[in-house]
Amino acid sequence: MVQAVRVNETGGPEVMTWEHIEIGEPGAGEARIRHTAIGLNFIDTYFRSGLYPAPTGLPFSPGNEGAGIVLSVGEGVDHVKPGDRVAYVGPLGAYAQERLVPAASLVVVPEGIDDKTAAAMMLKGMTAQYLLRQTYKVGPETTLLFHAAAGGVGLIAGQWAAHLGATVIGTAGSEDKIELAKAHGYQHMINYRTENFVERVKEITDGKGCDVVYDSVGQDTYPGSLDCLKPRGMWVSFGQSSGPITDFNLALLAQKGSLFATRPSLFNYIATREDLEATAGELFDVVQKGIVKIGINQEYRLADAVQAHSDLEGRKTTGTTVLLP
C-alpha cells in the first residue's frame, strides 16, 4: 500500500485526508510511477471544493501534474520504460506517493531539468505556451495584460512574452508581488488593490488598449478586462480564482469594440500525442536555454496538502509550489 491525499466529500481544505490506498499493476496503455514531486495548481482547489465535479466521483485524489520514475508499464506501452524520469499533466490522482497514469500523458524529462522543476512547470508552463503561442500568437507588436502576474503561470508567461518582444503589463495585489513580477519580464505593473487597472492600462497604452488580456481571475476582473482591449482585441478567460463569471453578456463584445472572447483549456491543446510532444518540447527548450526560469517559491510535504491549499487560496503563495511525497 501507498499513501495518498483523498477527498471523501467536497468542501474547504480540511476535507482532505491522508490515507493508505492500494495501487494495482498497470493495464494496457498504463504506467505505474513513483512520484518524486507533485505540482500544486489552483485548479486543484476547484475539484476539492466541488466547483469542478471530479470525473471519477467521490472519493478521489486531487492533482493533475507530477514527475517521477516509471516503475512498470502495461501492454502496448513502448515510448517509456521502467527507470525513465517522466513528467505529466493528466487525470486526477497526482496527490499520491505512487499512481497509475495513462502512459500517453507521460513525457520523458530531458537532462538538465530536475524532478522538482519538471513537476512544477508542466501544467503552468504548457498553459503559458498555448496562451502565448497558440490562443493568441504573441510577438513584438503585441501589447498584453496578464492578471495575477505573480502567480505560477504569470511568472512563466511574463518571461516568455518579454522574450517574444511584447509589451507586457501585469496586475498583482501587493508591492512584493509587483517586484517579483517585474523581475520576470513585466515592464509595467498595476497594484489592483490601490489602482484602477482599467484606467492604468489606458495610461500605459496612451489610450489604445491591449491586443490581448489573459484573465485567470474571473469575477473580480470582469467586465473590466474587456475595457482594457483595443477594438477587435481578444479576452482570454482561462481561470476563475475569484469566482466564476455568472452573467456573461455576449452583446458586450460588440458594444466594446467587436471583441473576441475565448475560454480555453490546456487539455484541448494537448489532446493528441503530437500536440503534447510539441507543447512540452517547446517548454523544455525555453527552460533549458534559460529563457524561462522556473522558480519554486514554496515546498510542502504531500501530507501537508491542507496547509498548502489554505495558503494558495489565501493568496499567501507566489509563483510555483511543489508537494513532496
Automatic annotation (TrEMBL):
Organism: Roseibium denhamense
Protein name from the UniProt record: NADPH2:quinone reductase
Upper classification of the organism: Bacteria, Pseudomonadati, Pseudomonadota, Alphaproteobacteria, Hyphomicrobiales
Pfam families: ADH_N, ADH_zinc_N
Keyword Nucleus carried by entry: no
Domain Enoyl reductase (ER): from-to ranges: 11-323
Cleaved signal peptide residues: none
Keywords on record: NADP, Oxidoreductase
Keyword check for Oxidoreductase: yes
Record Gene3D superfamilies: Medium-chain alcohol dehydrogenases, catalytic domain (3.90.180.10), NAD(P)-binding Rossmann-like Domain (3.40.50.720)
